[in-house]
Amino acid sequence: MMLDQLLFRAQERILSLAVVHAEFGLEGGDMHNRIVRPALPSNDKQLWLKLMHLDWIAHPPQAAVTSMKLKAETGVLGNVQLGLFSPQLPESARLDMTLARIRAVVGEERLGSIELKDTHEPDAFRMNEFSIAKTIIVQQTEPRLPAVMRRLRPAEKVSVTLLNRAPNIVYFRGISYKAECSYGPWHCAGGWWTDGRWSLEEWDVVARTCYGSSGNAGAGTRHREQICCCLIHDAIRDQWTIEALYD
């Protein structure tokens, strides 16, 4: 079998298979190419067979297969050294199988490691291929109690009235809050060359309930006498939202 030959050649050189390329010749002259890449290099034949099987089921050829060619890229057997108090990582074979099954359900573009983009655009990120990073042990310092930022997903729409171009009254979850302190605005804009252009103003606001407010908070919402929040004004849509609450 072709996979056996690839594994034998890698083991003879004290290496392991890191990537397997499959090239299918289809009826009519077309080609169908697939690449299988586990999280760690491996010489486990059953693992490779299962990974290729799951990948080919998820991405089947669109015509009858008339020929097949396999080629591989080698790598060093993955040995991850953990610290004494570091959490234990799953076995590479089990990890690869789990990732393959998840990929078959949600799609390849929705599985991986999230990396934030180098931009001021809110929630802008890219999905990178999953890999096991080396464990980094961070030196513990004296505990501190920083402020906690709780992101609201999705952001909640609010009504805002202005005073001297700054937020004055914020109507949030059925309750009116009057701003005591406001900091900003911080402006960010971008994407003007695409349909997803954005122009935002960000405010940090400390507000307290207005006296005589007759609004009713929604069911299950804990009434807050004071809120510290991050307000976002979308200048293009003229829309206000609360992106986060500070505790």
Could you walk me through the main structural features you see in this protein, from its secondary elements to its overall organization?
With 247 residues, the chain is α+β, with helices and mostly antiparallel strands. Among the domains are: 2-75, 2-Layer Sandwich (Dna Ligase, domain 1), CATH 3.30.1490; 149-246, no CATH class. The chain is built from three helices and eleven strands; from the N terminus they run H-E-E-H-E-H-E-E-E-E-E-E-E-E. The strands form three sheets. It has a six-stranded antiparallel barrel with strand order 6-7-8-9-10-11. It has a three-stranded antiparallel beta sheet with strand order 2-1-3. A hairpin with a 4-residue loop joins strand 1 and strand 2 (31-36). Helix 2 (45-58) runs parallel beside helix 3 (92-106). The longest helix is centred in the middle third of the chain and has 15 residues, at 92-106. It is elongated and about 80 Å long. Residues 134-138 and 214-221 have low confidence and may be disordered.
What is the total tally of β strands?
Answer: 11
Order of helices and strands: HEEHEHEEEEEEEE
Distance between the termini: 61 Å
Q: Strand pairing plus helix content: what structural class?
A: alpha+beta
Q: Describe the strand arrangement of the main beta sheet, using strand numbers.
A: 6-7-8-9-10-11
Question: In percent terms, what proportion of residues is strand?
Answer: 35-45%
- Shape estimate: elongated
Task: Specify the biggest β-sheet.
Answer: 6 strands, antiparallel, barrel
How many distinct helices? 3
Average pLDDT: 81
Uncertain runs are 134-138, 214-221
Spatial extent as radius of gyration: 27 Å
Helix share bin: 10-25%
